[in-house]
Design brief:
Shape: globular
Oligomer: single chain
Order of helices and strands: HHEEE
Low-confidence stretches: none
Helix content: 25-40%
Length: 69
């Protein structure tokens, strides 16, 4: 079970809750980085066999964009 900090934006929490446990663990680390910096949102990208997440200056803080690269 993941422990989500109280200061997470609501969209981070709802997106995180919709993920499988393995990807949620990866996503949680990136979200913690985003919250610590307070500048950029999260870009989730899907490739042929992988999903990844990163902070992105193209995404406003508190938002999650799920796309394909």
């Amino acid at each position: 079970m993941l422990t989500v900090p109280e200061n997470f934006p609501p969209k981070y929490i709802s997106f995180l809750e919709a993920q499988d446990e393995g990807f949620a663990e990866v996503l949680l680390m990136v979200m913690k980085q985003s919250v610590a910096e307070g500048k950029h949102g999260i870009l989730v990208s899907s490739q042929a066999t992988d999903r990844g997440a990163e902070t992105s200056e193209e995404v406003p803080y508190g938002e999650v964009v799920d796309g394909v690269r």
